[in-house]
Amino acid sequence: MTGQEGTFPTPGNAGVTTSPGDLFDPLCPTRLLLDRVGSRWTTMAVLSLANAEGELRFAELKREMTGISQKMLAQTLKSLERDGLVTRRVEASKPPRVHYSLTSLGTTLIGPLRALREWAERYIPVVKDNARTFDATNH
């Protein structure tokens, strides 16, 4: 499966446990997801590609993802491509132009990642305030 077909294996057929919620199980789907998309760079790459509604070139992604090094962006995109979440297209030109886009599997992450972003925008100020209050009373 390349992630392009739009059909996905069932959990048991993909080598993933079907018992939910056991983060101590190395085959727990949630744990595997967090291992793959738990970094800020992965989240930013997926959401940047989602917002583009098409392809983005490497340089465009780098400009959009402020603070990422070229090496880290290359590693992030390669990991996403390996997992079938991103596709890479090389345009035969001099120099070659490399374009990235989300696969059909990659697009299934857009909703959950946007929901996390919305949660963060709403509640991180509260979390920060709680941390300041805790730190002020517990040092």
Question: Can you give keywords for this protein?
Answer:
single chain, 3 strands, Arc Repressor Mutant, subunit A, globular, 139 residues, 53% helix, disordered N terminus, mainly alpha, 6 helices, three-stranded antiparallel β-sheet
Q: How many structural domains can be distinguished in the coordinates? A: 1
Q: Roughly how much helix do the residues carry, as a percent range?
A: 40-55%
Q: What's the Cα radius of gyration?
A: 18 Å
In terms of quaternary structure, what is this? Answer: single chain
Which overall shape is indicated by the principal axes computed on the Cα atoms?
Answer: globular
- Secondary-structure element pattern, one letter each: HHEHHEEHH
Text of the CATH class: Mainly Alpha
Low-confidence stretches: 1-5
Structural class: mainly alpha
Portion of residues in beta strands equals 5-15%
Report the CATH architecture.
Answer: Orthogonal Bundle
Task: Determine the CATH topology.
Answer: Arc Repressor Mutant, subunit A
Please describe what this structure looks like:
The structure is a single chain. The chain contains six helices and three strands. The protein is mainly alpha-helical. The chain has one domain: Orthogonal Bundle (Arc Repressor Mutant, subunit A). It has a three-stranded antiparallel sheet.
